[in-house]
Amino acid sequence: MRHATSHVPVPGGPDELHRGLSAFGRTQAGQLVDDLADLRPDAIASSPYLRAVQTVEPLARRFGVTVTTDAALREWESGLEPRPDYADHYARSWADPDFARPGGESLAALSTRAVAALRVLADQHAGGTVVVGSHGTFVARALAGFGVAVDWPFSAAMPMPAVYRLSFSGMRFHAEGPGLR
Q1: Which residues pair with 6 in a beta bridge?
Q2: What are its GO cellular component terms (predicted)?
């Protein structure tokens, strides 16, 4: 799932690792517990970024499950500092997924990382349910990596939070969630 509503990134503000949920986002995270209770997760994994962890913590408390953080579930390392014209830069990256800014990661590399991380979790918990807390670009590029037709407008329009359900059966999978057909 994509994390709940977080504080907006600002120059000089908390870095990406420490930027947490807004008050509204904390309320959303609490509401997700009822929305996801039927899943009865065997495991909960999260990006180490605070906003992702804060999104899954209420569910973990409800089921007595420890949140395991994994750097492979982190957000895209775009190579950009917070800036008002970020959307233009993101659109360029979506148009050319192999493009990487200095010090950044290409979207193609993110897709590879995301698919590998989710496959590892699926293999570790075969037959079980894992809830994963992550980020919008990570989720969109994971879906793209599994062959789902998503693009920059899809990623830009993804709500916070957004829950996508992936079901794995060997090498096959099924995806459902907001904006998917």
Answers
A1: 21
A2: cytoplasm
C-alpha span between 92 and 166 (Å, rounded): 28
Query: Per-residue confidence at 7, pLDDT binned at 50, 70, 90?
Result: very high
What is the dihedral angle through the alpha carbons of 28, 29, 32, 37, rounded to the nearest 10 degrees?
-160
pLDDT digits (tens, 9 = 90+) for 98-132: 999 999 999 999 999 999 999 999 999 998 999 99
Task: List C-alpha distances in Å: 15 to 2, 51, 63.
Answer: 18, 11, 30
Element (H, E) at 131: strand 130-133
Structure tokens given for 146: 């599994």
| pLDDT tens, position by position, 139-171 | 999 999 999 999 999 999 999 999 999 988 766
Distances in whole angstroms, Cα of residue 55 to Cα of each of 29, 104, 131, 157: 5, 26, 11, 19
Tokens 């999978």 locate to 173
Q: Please list the residues that pair with 156 across neighbouring strands.
A: none
Structure pTM?
0.93
Residue 9 pLDDT:
84
Provide Rg for the chain, Cα atoms: 16
All structural domains of the chain, each given as residue ranges with its CATH number in brackets, are 23-176 (3.40.50.1240)
